[in-house]
Design goal:
It is a single chain. Helices cover 32% and strands 21% of the residues. The strands form 3 sheets. The protein has a 9-stranded mixed sheet, with helices on both faces. The protein has a 6-stranded mixed sheet with strand order 15-16-20-17-18-19, with helices on both faces. Strands 3-2-1-4-5 form a 5-stranded parallel sheet, sandwiched between helices. It is globular and about 70 Å long.
Length: 456
Amino acid sequence: MTNFTLDSYKKRWQGKTIAVLGLGVSNRPLTRLLLTGGCTVIGCDRTPRENLDEEVLELERQGLLLKVGPTYLENLQADVVFRTPGMHPETPALVALREQGAEITSEMELFFECCPCPIISVTGSDGKTTTTTLISEILKAAGKTVHLGGNIGTPLLPRVEEMKKEDWAVVELSSFQLMDMRRSARIAVVTNLAPNHLDVHKDMAEYVQAKKHVFTFQDQDGVTVLNRDNEITRGFADEVPGTVRFFSRQEKAQVYLEDGIIWADGEKILEQKDILLPGIHNVENYMAAIAALQGLVPKEAIRQVAKNFGGVEHRIELVRVKDGVRYYNDSIASSPSRTIAGLRSFKEPVILIAGGYDKHIPYDVLGPEICRHVKRLIVTGATGEKIRKAVEDCEAYQTNAPEILSIEEFDEAVFAAARSAVEGDVVLLSPASAAFDKFKNFMVRGRHFKDLIQNL
């Protein structure tokens, strides 16, 4: 694929009007870059002017034209529009702009078009942040220069000009970023798929279609890594333009698990016991990373990371051991499938804190797993009663087995879990829900949980 440079885009956009929709973290470096390009830049955001932070106001002083507040999308005209990931491409204002001839793009798509080095992109419902980080860490252990970013929290576009052809970019991509992407990475990974984000996507079919864009625009030289054990991702194979590499825990594939050993094309790569991260789902994450990096790194780099990498914050993160009770922060678990993976990471029944913002996804699959792995369930937030119902409707449920407490306030739910715990117990925050009912995001929720636990 032909790559363009940032300078070529700046020249192309000189004298034009560019609208940046959403002035959140990822779009601010983009806005700064556009302000140096000799074009008119309009920053559009729902936030009222009186609530804008100093960084946005500084951008205004640098020449950004602000269009903010509830009517920020009304009567908008622009030649080029950068969509924020959280805005559906079929939002009426975007449809109108498209019909007027505006070019609709995104910060991530511009990065793909300008990045001078090979890109590995990772998506999926669960495990994508850990898998993205593992790929980055293994490449670094092999002596490569790596640029890690995307949905994982770091905008990469501002770093394009410092990247070299021999570097690697490793990018986590959400379904929101992928919905209207027209470029795919050289190596693409789909960890798994399960219902998620149905509060934004029209239906499951749209969510799945968005995820396919991670590989759709590859050529025949591209590589796509798929989870053979997941029915949805297994079905993607016939649509992949290039080479498919499967990983599997259940059967032999290009990368597979057998008798506690991860194999790749018949070669022993890594023993499961050497993986520091807990949980079988992290074995899957390693298999996905190994499949992505086949032929690119030595086995020693993989083994070095496995023995030393302690995980990513908010992902079954050990917060504290107090009075013999272990407290874990799994705030990233914003769906039932992710909470199920967390529960399966522990040998003993846990005290589970669950519930949060409602993304309109089903919770029935969570009921049997809670009955199997939880001794006491504390539900909170907007989905608390949906989770309670999923447990009580489960065939395996018996009265008070597990015991269920409904506590609306998050802090009180945490304190109730701590009060009920005795030596040897595990207290796990794994909400199976997004954080937006009470927190800005899962990171804020996780850090608040950690603060509460540290102050017990």
